[in-house]
């Protein structure tokens, strides 16, 4: 998992845990002191917020667990997958577009960062140079021909060789 995504999720988890352990109990205690709970809006709002925070914490912790299971060794070296940069020809727009397949937390369509779970991302995963991916989007079908592909492994090797520290560990596997 990219460190910045891990840090972002950990910060949100810490903030929600603090709210759940310190701020919400104080709000609930203050609301209870106001009297009749059946007509106490402050109490009901604090309890609703507590339920929301608990649910969001559960989601974030599950997402952290999912992302920690990503094994780079399982990402293909010759096909599009997480971390790949792909140049495609979009016949419907008659243009070349560059995408990078990222986690949903990193996605930013304007910057060409496409989640592997988005319709375009799912359509590109597993494709090789020369393949055509037919993507069904809300705006209709798009055909994207893969022109260039650089996997996460290619990019890791390029950055290692750029600083002269290319590793040969795992070669031949």
Q: What report would you give on this structure?
A:
This protein folds into two domains: 67 residues, Transcription elongation factor, GreA/GreB, N-terminal domain (Helix Hairpins), CATH 1.10.287.180; 90 residues, Chitinase A, domain 3, CATH 3.10.50.30. A hairpin with a 4-residue loop joins strand 1 and strand 2. The chain is built from four helices and five strands; from the N terminus they run H-H-E-E-E-H-E-E-H. Helices cover 44% and strands 20% of the residues. The protein is elongated. Helix 1 runs antiparallel to helix 2. A five-stranded mixed beta sheet has the order 3-2-1-5-4. With 173 residues, it is of the alpha+beta class.
* Assembly category: single chain
Question: Mind summarizing the main beta sheet?
Answer: 5 strands, mixed
CATH topology of the largest domain: Chitinase A, domain 3
* Number of separate helices: 4
Helix content: 40-55%
Task: Provide a short characterization of the protein structure.
With 173 residues, the chain is of the alpha+beta class. Helix content is 44%, strand content 20%. The protein folds into 2 domains: 3-69, Helix Hairpins, CATH 1.10.287.180; 73-162, Roll (Chitinase A, domain 3).
